[in-house]
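[09:14] KT: can someone run the structure on this one? pasting the chain below
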Amino acid sequence: QVQFVQSGGGLVQPGGSLRLSCAVSEFTLDYYSIGWFRQAPGKERDGVSCINRSDGSTYYANSVKGRFTASTDNAKNTVYLQMNSLKPEDTAVYYCATMICDRTLRGHTFDSWGQGTQVTVSS
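[09:31] RB: done, structure tokens below
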């Protein structure tokens, strides 16, 4: 059973930055790719980014491309999502999860999810 501890998030003004962290249980990154998802009120959960464990390829949703950067620190068993130039439409609960990572960001998830963290972009 994969365990996650998410941190980061909060309230930020438009144009600001936040960094989300997703610490996972040991060896998880040896076997799984990790993706970031978000869910805004009244909307479906959408893929934001993922890092392919096999080749290190990183994929982003068009809406965040050029503003968000996903990265991994294997020594710390932690995945990060650096979010810059934040917009009000980025407001959502953000989740990390194990998944099959490809450019569609719709790969199979393994029913292992972080607890979610709220990001609110507002002036």
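[09:33] KT: thanks! The chain is about 5% helix and 50% strand.
[09:34] RB: yep, looked fine to me
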